[in-house]
Design goal:
The protein has helices spanning about 10-20, 40-50, 90-110, 145-160, 185-195, 215-225, 230-235, 250-260, 285-290, 295-310, and strands spanning about 1-5, 25-30, 55-60, 75-80, 120-125, 130, 170-175, 175, 200-205, 210, 215, 235-240, 245, 265-270, 275-280. It is an alpha/beta fold. The strands form five sheets. The chain has a seven-stranded parallel β-sheet with strand order 3-2-1-4-5-7-12, sandwiched between helices. It has a two-stranded parallel sheet with strand order 6-15. Helix 1 links the parallel strand 1 (about 1-5) and strand 2. Helix 1 (about 10-20) runs parallel beside helix 2.
Length: about 325
């Protein structure tokens, strides 16, 4: 089948595109290669995709012209592209245009794909709010521009399913870690600074925050398992992550163990909108997708450290 992956040069999008090729699908990836973080990392990811046969289109989903250069014969769309996370350098306009406007234009494009079997939106546990421990039926209470705009994007996609224009679902991901994680994210930064013997900036109180740190390979298992299940998954929201909780301090300790070093800490003021607790409720994913993440935190950190050392030392 022919599959479009947006945000294909990013962290989870690149892993998913590679997996889809290994499963025998033809994959086209779209990415705008923005400078939100070092473009060299996206180029590294893109080169890996090109090597395995993914066609990469460098273009911005916020630009309507993007959709004039894409074929309209896709069987699936996996929509990863977004303005990610909570960042003081990102404006509301950044979140609005990347997460809402771009999704609206992509939905318009999807309506023109006559053989489209399903539009798979990639959501986030941030939609739930400061605590994300709930089943998918819980009313969202997002506490950041990121969570608010990702909720809006999710609803834009599912609206089309409700009025039976396309089949669509949304997958809410939990604290994904592993090789290719963005430079500003916790584990890449911990590994980088730990190897340099430099202090890691830790937001006040965050060492006690609880997270469902989920290995990217386990996430991709869930993402690709939607293929062929469009009749069951249409208009559904599904959590993907591990049920195992760890504190941020557990994560710091895991990196210290893998690097065989002491992680220095620099205390920073508390960050507004940061989630206090995430614990993936995956009962629905188990039932509908036979989802069963198995990778331990320590193993995930080992794999991420190996990747980092190979590519950045």
């Amino acid at each position: 089948m022919k599959i479009l992956v947006t945000g294909a040069a990013g962290f989870i999008g690149s892993h998913t595109a590679e997996r889809l090729v290994k499963l025998g699908h033809s994959v086209v990836g779209v990415d705008n290669f923005c400078d939100y973080y070092n473009p060299d990392l996206k180029s590294l990811n893109a080169n890996s995709l090109l090597d395995c046969g993914v066609k990469i289109v460098k273009s911005d989903l916020r630009d309507a012209a993007t959709f004039t250069i894409l074929d309209k014969d896709f069987d699936y769309i996996f929509h990863f592209a977004a303005q990610p996370g909570i960042s003081s350098t990102s404006t509301f306009e950044d979140y609005f245009t990347n997460n809402i406007l771009a999704t609206k234009l992509l939905c318009d494009f999807a309506l023109q794909c006559n053989q489209l079997k399903m539009f798979v939106n990639i959501g986030t546990s941030s939609i739930y709010g400061l605590e994300a421990t709930f089943p998918e039926t819980k009313a969202p209470e997002p506490a950041s521009y990121y969570g608010v705009t990702k909720l809006a994007a999710e609803q834009l996609v599912l609206q089309h399913a409700r009025v039976k224009q396309i089949k669509a679902c949304s997958l809410r991901l939990y604290s994904v870690i592993g090789p290719r994680e963005r430079p500003e994210k916790m584990y890449t930064k911990l590994i980088d600074l730990g190897l340099k013997n430099q202090p890691f900036p830790l937001f006040e109180g965050s060492e006690k925050h609880l997270r469902s740190f989920t290995y990217v390979g386990d996430i991709v298992d869930g993402v690709v398992s939607v293929i062929g299940k469009e009749a069951v998954l249409n208009n559904e929201i599904i959590n993907l992550g591990t049920e195992v909780e760890h504190t941020t301090q557990d994560g710091i300790d895991a990196v210290a163990k893998v690097l065989n070093s002491t992680i220095q800490i620099e205390k920073m003021p508390k960050r507004f909108g940061d989630q206090v607790r995430t614990k993936a409720n995956i009962d629905k994913a188990k039932r509908l997708l036979n989802y069963n993440p198995q990778t331990t935190l320590l193993k995930a950190v080992e794999l991420q450290a190996e990747w980092f050392k190979k590519n950045f030392l």
